[in-house]
Amino acid sequence: xxxxxxxxxxxxxxxxxxxxxxxxxxxSSAIPNARATDQCVRNIxxxxxxxxxxxxxxxxxxxxxxxxxxxxxxxxxNVSRRALPKDRAGSRLAPGRMTIAIAANTxxxxxxxxxxxADALKRLMEGNxxxxxxxxxxxxxxxxxxxxxxxxxxxAAILSCADSRVAPELAFDxxxxxxxxxxxxxxxxxxxxxxxxxxxxxxxxxPLIMVLGHTGCGAVDAAIKVLKTGVVLPGHLPGLIxxxxxxxxxxxxxxxGNLLDNAVAENVRRQVARLKNSPPIVQKxxxxxxxxxxxxxxxxxxGKIAIV
Length: 308
Ligand SMILES: [Zn+2]
Description:
Layout: H1 8-15, E1 25-27, E2 38-40, H2 47-61, E3 68-70, E4 73-75, H3 117-132, H4 145-150, E5 156-160, H5 168-171, E6 179-183, H6 191-202, E7 208-214, H7 218-229, H8 237-252, H9 259-276, H10 281-287, E8 292-298, E9 305-307
Parallel strand pairs: 5-6, 5-7, 7-8
Antiparallel strand pairs: 1-2, 3-4, 8-9
Helix pairs in contact: 7-8, 8-9
The structure holds zinc ion.
Residues 161, 163, 185, 214, 217-219 line the site of zinc ion.
């Protein structure tokens, strides 16, 4: 039942965060990803990352349970004391009573992304078939906009190359809110992208990660040239290329096929393997089959994506 504007006690009990002035509460059924009873449907000012700081302060000074609102999600981390945040003096914040109450999806629940990883992959590949055939679904971008204000329930996270010719929403024929996309030249796993993917699968309950490379990748081609000629690239590019080099070295040992194509596919497989072995979040959710992690290569010539 929505709380009234004056029901401060109920809001505080519900949200656990005193600066939350939102009067917009609703039953969990109104929120795509919600599993708990009632949820605050508004984000607290500053967004989810600024919120960490706010919630840490609120937790330390006012509440026995550390509760963070991640957009639509209510988060009460069940963590060891070692993992608790420190205050400015370096002391661990007292844990109080820790429970998990992350708004989450369960298969069979009402959330749009409470689906099996295989079903998410099927929807992606069916969307790609529509895209390649130039028969995409008709879309009304304004419908659903109000619902998207309240939260997001993407069906897949995509780690894609930054190449302008590879547009995941288009290539998979998906709409706003359907894909959680992180992009970097050469679609490599680095700490920031890994953290973003962790956010997607842990808090948004995304059931599938796809690493998406593409034919004619300039980043992979640059790694080949660096290895062959020893050329030194400017700026921060050497660090990026270094992350791709191992895949090129493996591809160079292949007898058949085109080196660039082989290196692109090998790089995708390598990043998939890295994710599967990235503790603590991705590795655990993959090992327990909560998520799947696959690799794909987008063919610039045909628009088709092949699983590698
Ligand atoms: Zn590329």
